[in-house]
C-alpha cells in the first residue's frame, strides 16, 4: 500500500512538472515575437502557430507525413544556413512591378502604401522576397527547433488552390521536453483563422516526426 501511495504521488508530481513546462513554453513563445515572425506577413501570438499562405498548383492537396517531415527538414536547413534577413523599403510602383504576376499582392499593395506614406516594406532571405510589416529577426540562425505542423486549404475569390502552411518554432538554445513540444505541435495543427478566408476543410494528415538540427542534438547530448 505504501508503495502504491508513493507511486501515485510521483505520478502527480510528474504531471505537474509537465504542465509547468507547457506553461513556460507558451510564455516563451508569446515573449519572443520576432522569432515567430520569420516568414510572416500577419501573426496573432495567441493563435498557436505561425502561418504562410501560398498558391500551390494542386487542386486538392493533402500533404502526407513524409511531405510535412520534408518541409520541416528544409526549415531546419534554412536555420542552419544562418541567412541574413534584409529589410527593404520600396515605392508602391516598384512593388507593383515586382509582384505583377501575383494577384493577391497586387490587391494588397495599394492599401498598404496608402497607410505607409506610399512605401512598401519587404524582407529578403537570399533570393526570396515578400511583403511583411515586420519586424523580423536578423538571421535565420536564431531559429532553433521547428516543425511544419499542417497545411490547410482555404477559400479565395481568386483561386481554388490557396493553402495555409502552419508551424511552430522556438529560439535556438531554448530547451523543451518532448511532451511539452508535442502539445505546441498539436495546437499548431488546428486551422489558424488569421484573415477573412475560411477553411474549406481541415487537414487530417498525421503529425510529422520531430526534426531537430545537429547542433540541437549535440547540446541535448552534452546536457544529459
From TrEMBL:
<dbReference type="InterPro" id="IPR018163">
    <property type="entry name" value="Thr/Ala-tRNA-synth_IIc_edit"/>
</dbReference>
<dbReference type="GO" id="GO:0006435">
    <property type="term" value="P:threonyl-tRNA aminoacylation"/>
</dbReference>
<keyword id="KW-0648">Protein biosynthesis</keyword>
<dbReference type="GO" id="GO:0000166">
    <property type="term" value="F:nucleotide binding"/>
</dbReference>
<feature type="compositionally biased region" description="Basic and acidic residues">
    <location>
        <begin position="214"/>
        <end position="224"/>
    </location>
</feature>
<dbReference type="GO" id="GO:0005739">
    <property type="term" value="C:mitochondrion"/>
</dbReference>
<protein>
    <submittedName>
        <fullName>Uncharacterized protein</fullName>
    </submittedName>
</protein>
<dbReference type="GO" id="GO:0004829">
    <property type="term" value="F:threonine-tRNA ligase activity"/>
</dbReference>
<feature type="region of interest" description="Disordered">
    <location>
        <begin position="197"/>
        <end position="224"/>
    </location>
</feature>
Amino acid at each position: 500500500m505504501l508503495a502504491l501511495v508513493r507511486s501515485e504521488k510521483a505520478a502527480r508530481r510528474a504531471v505537474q512538472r509537465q504542465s509547468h513546462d507547457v506553461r513556460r513554453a507558451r510564455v516563451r513563445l508569446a515573449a519572443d515575437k520576432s522569432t515567430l515572425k520569420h516568414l510572416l506577413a500577419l501573426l496573432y501570438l495567441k493563435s498557436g502557430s505561425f502561418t504562410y499562405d501560398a498558391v500551390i498548383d494542386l487542386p486538392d492537396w493533402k500533404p502526407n507525413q513524409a511531405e510535412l517531415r520534408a518541409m520541416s527538414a528544409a526549415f531546419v536547413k534554412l536555420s542552419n544556413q544562418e541567412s541574413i534577413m534584409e529589410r527593404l523599403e520600396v515605392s508602391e510602383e516598384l512593388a507593383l512591378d515586382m509582384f505583377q504576376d501575383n494577384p493577391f499582392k497586387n490587391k494588397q499593395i495599394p492599401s498598404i502604401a496608402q497607410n505607409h506614406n506610399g512605401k512598401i516594406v519587404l524582407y529578403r532571405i537570399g533570393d526570396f522576397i515578400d511583403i511583411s510589416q515586420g519586424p523580423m529577426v536578423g538571421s535565420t540562425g536564431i531559429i532553433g527547433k521547428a516543425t511544419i505542423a499542417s497545411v490547410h486549404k482555404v477559400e479565395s475569390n481568386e483561386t481554388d488552390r490557396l493553402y495555409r502552411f502552419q508551424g511552430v518554432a522556438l529560439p535556438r538554445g531554448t530547451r523543451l521536453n518532448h511532451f511539452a513540444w508535442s502539445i505546441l505541435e498539436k495546437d499548431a495543427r488546428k486551422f489558424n483563422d488569421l484573415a477573412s478566408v475560411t477553411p474549406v476543410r481541415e487537414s487530417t494528415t498525421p503529425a510529422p516526426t520531430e526534426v531537430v538540427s545537429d547542433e540541437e542534438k549535440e547540446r541535448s547530448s552534452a546536457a544529459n
